[in-house]
Specification:
This protein has 239 residues and is mainly α. The chain folds into 2 domains: 11-92, no CATH class; 108-225, Tetracycline Repressor, domain 2. It is built from 13 helices and no strands. It has helices at residues 17-21, 23-31, 40-56, 63-70, 74-80, 84-92, 108-121, 130-142, 144-158, 160-172, 181-198, 206-223, 229-237. Helix 3 (40-56) packs across helix 6 (84-92), helix 6 (84-92) packs across helix 9 (144-158) and helix 8 (130-142) packs across helix 9 (144-158). This is TetR/AcrR family transcriptional regulator.
């Protein structure tokens, strides 16, 4: 029986008995390549590319199909990815990058807004096709183990620059001291995901981007530190 990623059978609940029973054949095949065999990174790339091709073709991801398309032995596949769940999670993230830390100088609000609006603009058809995004949503929603693997290995890592910037804002006093940083990121991310998943819009739609920016403005007002009571009173009495 093979690993698959389908809506009816979670990838994490299936095994490929053949690879476990006959690892030597794959080992021998890889060894015969000799000194000129591809580097580990190249083998990883072949496997990920094959997995993505299967996903993009809307086919079930099985060990047999990955081996056939990649030309890599089953033993080599299992050495790198012990399960189809982790392989699919990594393949679904190809084309995405871990953002660098936000530069510290300057206005925190402006930096975060620029970062988020810029990151959404970069999700174009070249780096991360819309069809792949939709396949990712379908696959992770049909398999909770895959959803958790994708969260732990990729999504949680990409959140860190914004979360770290929010923590810095709390330390600097520009954001509320009682701010729940993770909840704030969930709120911000929800603004963007709603446009794609619920409305069915794209980030190159000016109206969708305007809604994202307006949503960020509302969220930011709730996150900002309130001025001292004396300052509030003086502002309210100004003509």
């Amino acid at each position: 029986m093979t690993f698959t990623a389908t809506a009816t059978t979670p990838a994490s609940e299936q095994r490929d008995a053949g690879a476990a029973a006959h690892p030597a054949a794959g080992e021998d095949a890889e060894a015969r390549r000799g000194p000129g065999r591809p580097r580990t990174e190249e083998l990883d790339g072949q496997i990920l590319a094959a997995t993505l091709a299967i996903i993009d073709a809307d086919e079930a991801v099985t060990v047999s199909r990955v081996v056939e398309r990649s030309g890599v032995s089953r033993a080599a596949l299992y050495r790198r990815w012990p399960s189809m769940t982790t392989l699919i999670a990594d393949a679904l993230d190809v084309g995405r990058t871990v953002p660098p830390p936000l530069a510290k100088p300057g206005d925190l609000r402006a930096r975060i807004f620029e970062f988020l609006m810029g990151a959404s603009a970069e999700l174009d058809e070249t780096s991360y096709p819309d069809q792949r995004f939709r396949q990712r949503i379908r696959l992770v929603m049909s398999d909770r183990a895959l959803q958790q693997a994708y969260w732990e290995s990729h999504v949680s890592v990409r959140r860190r620059p914004i979360e770290d910037a929010l923590r810095a804002g709390i330390a600097q006093g520009s954001l509320r001291p009682d701010l729940d940083v993770e909840a704030c990121f969930d709120l911000i991310a929800g603004i963007f995901y709603y446009q794609l998943v619920v409305r069915g819009d794209r980030f190159d739609d000016p109206a969708a981007r305007a809604r994202c920016r307006a949503g960020l403005e509302v969220a930011w007002r709730g996150m900002e530190a309130q001025p001292p009571a004396g300052d509030q009173m003086s502002q309210s009495t100004e003509p």
